[in-house]
């Protein structure tokens, strides 16, 4: 007994089979993604009228189509669509060997098109957010090996960047890790506030830079970029002389990443300066043996020039000099040089000159400043100028300290009767570091024929 079919002539699909297919539909009995129209089907008009299809079309191909339909109906992902279409397929089964083709066509052109479009939009949005604020991929420039001369590049999404490794997801979904020793630089999308903060910092407008970076931190969602912004805040606070806030921010940075690649922004004192009462009290707490080594190091560097706390500061520096962290150990030794330079011999200073080359490169700025001061105290202006000029050339992360180094290098040149070169350095301090205290003294030097000797703190 045949069943009266229920056909959906108003739907934009048509089943293809040996009887319901166009000449280009493919070999008879095959099931595949070929398309035809109602007009090419010799049974189309009968289906539209709801007529009973001829029983002689029931063959093995029709039976395979029915089996395929029942299999599709049993799959949870497509059951709703297949189930709704089942009456039409079952009713027309004697004349439809392309039931699966009709099912797939119905799936593609029904309301699921909206779901596919929504899924595509969601994936695109996710990808753009993952790549950054402007949709560009991150680009990592790195050296392929320790002896490689050139650099290579990787594009993708930087997942994390710490003091030990960089993790990047490549466009094909694979994740790759790089040792931070080989990473040269990272190109990534940064929000407008961060870019504005960097421009303000370069111009010496540290208050505005700090405000912009704090806005950037509130807008940024990537943890590794957030740490970069926090390091920028520390640099601003150092230049503003807000040592208490700078130390607190740096300790947060180290807590988030103990091996931070931004360790060079550590707020150490390399020359004497004025300290607030609140910072003195906090530094005495940080200098205790129970405090983290990096906190002890920072506090000791600031209290070293104060008579009452000098002894405790030296004890803290000795503890830090034995640290397992080479960065802390070397910086503690350089701070000890600062304390010992008035009393050591020239031979000892020469040994320091060799040892400073063993310090991690990005941390050598402060130690070179100490070395230059030591050579000035031992009446060796040539070696003093060589040490001090390394800061503006190679270690310019702290503009205030760079300005002091340029000023003292100009003083050394004056001692060698190289007044024209000294005048150029004084002019550079005035022009490029007008916001620093050394600029006012450099301006006075340029005005006076016989400039007075500046007292050192």
Annotated CATH homologous superfamily of the domain at 341-457: Tetratricopeptide repeat domain
What's the CATH topology name of the domain at 341-457? Serine Threonine Protein Phosphatase 5, Tetratricopeptide repeat
Q: What spatial order of strands do you see in the largest sheet?
A: 4-3-2-1-5
- Outline type: globular
CATH-defined architecture of the domain at 341-457: Alpha Horseshoe
Summarize this structure briefly.
Helix 10 (277-286) crosses helix 11 (293-303), helix 16 (381-388) packs antiparallel against helix 18 and helix 18 packs antiparallel against helix 19. The chain contains 20 helices and five strands.
Topology:
Elements lengths: L43 H6 L10 H14 L5 H13 L7 H11 L2 H20 L6 E5 L9 E10 L3 E5 L5 E5 L3 E5 L4 H11 L3 H14 L3 H17 L3 H14 L20 H10 L6 H11 L3 H15 L4 H15 L5 H10 L9 H13 L3 H8 L1 H5 L4 H17 L3 H14 L4 H11 L10
Helix pairs in contact: 2-3, 3-4, 6-7, 7-8, 8-9, 10-11, 11-12, 11-13, 12-13, 13-15, 14-15, 15-16, 15-18, 16-18, 18-19, 18-20, 19-20
């Amino acid at each position: 007994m045949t069943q009266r079919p229920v056909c959906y002539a108003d739907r934009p699909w048509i089943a293809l089979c040996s009887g319901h297919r166009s000449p280009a539909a493919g070999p008879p009995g095959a099931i595949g993604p070929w398309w035809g129209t109602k007009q090419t089907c010799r049974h189309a008009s009968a289906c539209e009228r709801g007529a009973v299809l001829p029983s002689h079309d029931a063959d093995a191909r029709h039976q395979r189509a029915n089996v395929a339909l029942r299999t599709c109906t049993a799959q949870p992902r497509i059951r709703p669509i297949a189930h709704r279409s089942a009456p039409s397929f079952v009713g027309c089964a004697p004349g439809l060997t392309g039931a699966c083709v009709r099912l797939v066509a119905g799936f593609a052109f029904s309301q699921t098109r909206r779901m596919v479009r929504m899924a595509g939009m969601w994936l695109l949005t996710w990808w753009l957010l993952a790549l950054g604020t402007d949709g560009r991929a991150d680009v990592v420039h790195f050296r392929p090996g320790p002896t490689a001369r050139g650099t290579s590049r990787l594009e993708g999404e930087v997942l994390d960047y710490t003091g030990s490794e960089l993790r990047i997801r490549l466009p094909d979904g694979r994740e790759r890790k790089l040792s931070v020793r080989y990473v040269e630089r990272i190109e990534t999308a940064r929000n407008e506030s961060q870019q504005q903060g960097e421009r303000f910092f370069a111009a010496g407008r540290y208050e505005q830079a700090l405000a912009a970076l704090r806005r950037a931190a509130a807008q940024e969602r990537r943890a590794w970029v957030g740490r970069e912004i926090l390091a920028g805040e520390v640099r601003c606070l150092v230049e503003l002389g807000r040592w208490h806030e700078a130390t607190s921010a740096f300790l947060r940075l180290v807590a988030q990443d103990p091996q931070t690649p931004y360790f060079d922004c550590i707020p150490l004192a390399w020359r004497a300066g004025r300290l607030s009462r609140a910072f003195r009290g906090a530094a005495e707490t940080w200098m205790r043996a129970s405090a983290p080594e990096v906190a002890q190091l920072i506090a000791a560097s600031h209290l070293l020039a104060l008579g009452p706390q000098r002894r405790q500061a030296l004890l803290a520096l000795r503890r830090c000099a034995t640290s397992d962290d080479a960065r802390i150990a070397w910086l503690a030794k350089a701070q000890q040089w600062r304390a010992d330079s008035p009393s050591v011999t020239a031979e000892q200073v020469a040994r320091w000159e060799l040892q400073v080359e063993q310090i991690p490169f990005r941390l050598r700025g402060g130690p070179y400043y100490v070395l230059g001061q030591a050579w000035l105290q031992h009446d060796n202006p040539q070696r003093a100028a060589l040490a001090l000029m390394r800061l503006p050339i190679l270690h310019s992360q702290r503009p205030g300290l760079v300005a002091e180094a340029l000023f003292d290098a100009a003083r050394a040149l004056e001692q060698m009767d190289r007044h024209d070169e000294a005048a150029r350095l004084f002019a550079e301090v005035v022009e490029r570091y007008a916001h620093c205290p050394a600029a006012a003294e450099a301006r006075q030097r340029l005005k006076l024929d016989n400039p007075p000797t500046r007292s050192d703190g």
